[in-house]
Amino acid sequence: MAKTVEQLMELIDKIPDEAAKPGEFILPELMAIQIAHQVRDDDIVFAGTGLPMVGIMTANMLNAPHALLIYEAGICDGKTMHVPMSVCDQRAANMSSSLGGLVDTFGFFLQQGFVTLGFLGGAAIDKYGGVNVTSIGDYYKPAHRFTGSGGNSDIGTMSKRVAYIILQEKRRFLERNEYTTTPGWWCWDFKKNEWRPKKEVWKGTPFADSGPVAVVTNMGVYKFDNNGEIFLESFHPGVTVQQIQENCGFALNVKNVKGETKPPTYRELFVLREFVDAELIFLPQKVEYPAAIKKLIES
Amino acid sequence: MLKRGATKKAQVMSLEEAVKTYIKDGCMIGFGGFTAMNRNPTAVAWEMVRQGIKNVHCMDRHGSACSWILNAVGAIKIYETDWMGWGEMAGKLDVNLERNYKAGKMILEDYSHGAMAMRFLAGAIGAPFIPYYAPQGSDLYNTKYDALGRAGLRGKDPKIPKIKFQEMADPFYGAGNVMLLPAARLDVAVIHVAQCGEKGTARWRGIGTIDKEICFAADKVIVVCEELTPEADLRKNPENNQIPYFVVDAIVELPWGGYPSAVPFYYDYDAPFMRGMDAASRNPEDLKKWLDDWVFGPKSWEEVMIKVGAKRMLELKADSTTGYSTRILRGKKPAPRMKMPLSVARSGY
């Protein structure tokens, strides 16, 4: 007979915290766990819908159980049992500390300076971590019109640390975005047509030193140097540095590569599969556990 | 100018009557709730389409099932908001909106989510504008991308601000530059709540999003409710009420009027139905069929829900403890029945 959720919970510490082997996990799982690793236990996190939300939920169940999760529509410290499909989902409001609205989340929490980590998506990114979620091509006659900012530009500029998850393609990793929704460490001055550091543009505000610290893609993990420029930190298993360079629209700094991205552990995968997205909403499929793990789960 | 006389009374009326009385061609309207997932006054947008209301200037916290239906027939002329999708994980982009926009049929004015929240806060408290930090350095504050200005619409309509934003150095504490954002002011606000008294006192459960702000920022307010509840009952626990009756003009009792969005503690969102809407919008013929089936075919909202069917409604019915349904199939597998969130069970709060 299948185990109850409570029985599965008791198994977590018995599942080895050892790296899974290639073929035992899929890319969205690796990415979700990489997001989770960015979260610290004392973080106040503000995350967007989609994989960022799955990642921070995973963190909340693993490495950062006391991280406080803010969901945009007014939720403070939601303790989810079922993965939300939106930042306004009643599932995200479960056992929360308080509920309010947008003025609470963007005003009382974000602009007041409480948020230590923002986690967001993006359609395209520039070499300083500036993100476009608005349009491709001429703004008024776009080739593609996306949703526009939503909370991206608020969270992306006023959270102490910001992390992005982006699909890596040459046309999405750019020297400069056609439209910058959320500026990174350098802002394009459209009057003078030159880059200006965020520290200067936001000088005197409480957010001059806030900005992007990490980017997770389907190919690698990135960090930012002291000048605010992106560099490759690790490449995902099965991906080469050369492939990454080929999928980047600017000369990428690959001098600080530490090696391969750490694969998820069996315990992390167990939590992600059984507790975070057991309904298979974000994950396309459930991969079979290797025999030894399966035996542990079924015993 | 006094906004309201003390003698004004909210009226209980039908959906058809409320739309006919308060929503006109070209009006500036804001819908409550959050995306297409939570407390959308869907039935009002549905009725607007049936009454053929056109050239709407929609200004709200972002797209929803309401904007999706209006865009499906090209009824939105100006959309001033921050997120132009609608269904999040069940249909992110509004394909109708993109199609209409590319065809030059509508104007989009972009702000950020926090900026729109602040604009509505200013509108709600009667302030002409509000300072906000974010997002400086963004093209959102590039004067080249002031769509309403480019269309020559600023400075004419008293509800359209003369400029999109104004940058200013903080004169009080010297804490850098801020953006002054114009108050958002609406002709009509429409919200969907759990309960409303016959006098207009309204209560929702779950998150508040921007509903209180849009009500106070509007000249007229329509409240759609799941239940018309005796005012006396709502006043036993006034701390649970969010909208004071004196801002409300029309009360419409319409169970399931928020479908396919969720109304916490009443019903869940219908993700499969929204995926169907998204699929239909990708082909003009499918969209026409969808509109005939779901908007123009049914004689009433009740008929829409009859068409949704008892089976789906039972699946969507919210649990009384969580406020959502654990019976609806949202992904490929059913929801596990959990007593306690894993993080709390293992590590407390």
Question: How would you describe what is shown here?
Answer:
The complex is a heterodimer of chains A (299) and B (349). Chain A has 299 residues and is an alpha/beta fold. Chain A contains 9 helices and 17 strands. Chain A has helices at residues 5-11, 27-38, 51-61, 102-111, 152-158, 198-201, 241-246, 266-276, 291-298; strands at 44-47, 68-71, 75-76, 98-99, 117-121, 124-126, 131-132, 135-137, 142-145, 161-166, 173-174, 186-189, 194-197, 211-217, 220-224, 230-235, 259-260. In chain A, strand 8 and strand 9 form a beta hairpin. The mean pLDDT of chain A is 96. With 349 residues, chain B is α/β, with parallel strands linked by helices. Chain B contains 13 helices and 12 strands. In chain B, strand 9 and strand 10 form a beta hairpin. In chain B, helix 9 (271-281) crosses helix 10. Chain B is globular, with a radius of gyration of 21 Å.
Keywords:
heterodimer; A: 299 residues; alpha/beta; 10-stranded mixed sheet; 3-stranded mixed sheet; 9 helices; 25% helix; globular; B: 349 residues; 9-stranded mixed sheet; 3-stranded antiparallel sheet
